[in-house]
Structures are given as structure tokens and as C-alpha cells.
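This follows on from our talk about sequence and fold. Go ahead and set the record down below:
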Amino acid sequence: MIKNERQYRITKAQAARFARTLESLRERRESPAGVHPRIAKAQEDAVASQLADLEGELREYEELKAGVFQMEALDMVGRLAALLVKARIAQGLTQRELAERLGLKEQQIQKYEATDYASAKLSRINEIVNALVVGARQEPEPRGTHSRPG
């Protein structure tokens, strides 16, 4: 994500370089110089993909500068504390188990949840989100669906 005008200028310059490179690769493909067609196509696809990513970032920044933004997205910040608690419960984790995943004391998680995470730094909230997401990916199957050995 482009966060300021300096990054915007740098990204714009990078996109221009990628566009020139892509054009050069396409011209070279029309008059092959000993490069296998598959390799030439792979190079072209890689540069085109990078260019598309940069152009997407540029468009997003330009739209934001023009005032295009869904303010409703900010509502999630207000719901974040409840989402974290719900995610913990949905994974079947106690406050103690979440604390252990994070290397914290259970009382710290209790405090965060009791105050709707008001005292938690953003970096800590990010750690908690990551611990919950990683934990969700590691769950082999929902509770109550284990089959008994025959």
C-alpha cells in the first residue's frame, strides 16, 4: 500500500520501468534471439504481473487522494475487541490458552478483554490476531466430528 507522495512517485517510476521492460520483452518475442518461447513467455508474464500489482497500488492511492473511501470500513475498529473475543471462543480457547500462545499471563488477556483491548498496543493486537489466525489454520477439524477408530 502506498502511504505518501514519496512512495507514490517511487511506485510510479517503478511502474514505468516495468512497462518499458514488458514492451522490450514483447518486441524480443516477435524476433526471437535464441530464447526458448516458454522462457520468454514466463519472463513476460512475471513482468506483466508485477506491473499489474504496481498499477493497482497506484490506482488505489489516486482514488484515496480523490476522496474515494468507504468510511463504513472504519466501523470494524469499533468492533475489533468483540471480534477478537468471538474468535478466541470459536476456536475453543480459554483466556489462559490464548495467553500461553502469546507468552503472556492469563491476567493480561483478562485485562485486555475486560477493557475491550483499550490498553493494548496495536502491535499486541496484531500478535493476538496472528495467534488466532494461525490457530484457526491448524485446527484439523471442528469439535464433535472426530470419528472413532473402528
